[in-house]
Design goal:
It is built from 4 helices and no strands. The protein is mainly alpha-helical. The chain has one domain.
């Protein structure tokens, strides 16, 4: 992959967790549960369009990364750097991995 595409992919991966951390909580604080729905539509929709529609993220070969990986790692690192409880985050990551493996196994069982 060429260097400009690497930079664009890293920027696309950074934008999503940055907007999540910056905007989601404020929308929920100001508008309650409706703010969460608004944040889901605006933040996820806008960054998905930038990354996949406009083509800010370049995926080549067999590598496939979902935006959830960018959100998870970005928010975990931001929490760790800001001094939040990292132990709680590690437990959530382990649970997410277990859930992903279980979900993948169930999908595999559907198509065997």
């Amino acid at each position: 992959m060429a260097f400009p595409k690497i930079i664009a992919t890293m920027a696309g991966g950074f934008i999503f967790p940055f907007l999540l951390r910056l905007v989601w909580g404020k929308l929920c604080d100001n508008f309650g549960p409706i703010g969460g729905w608004l944040a889901a539509g605006f933040i996820v929709g806008t960054t998905w369009t930038l990354n996949h529609g406009v083509g800010l993220i370049f995926q080549s070969g067999d590598a496939w990364i979902d935006m959830a990986w960018a959100a998870g790692t970005g928010l975990f690192v931001a929490s760790a750097l800001s001094g939040d409880d990292v132990g709680k985050g590690i437990g959530m990551i382990i649970n997410a991995i277990i859930g992903g493996v279980l979900g993948g196994f169930i999908l595999y069982c559907l198509y065997v």
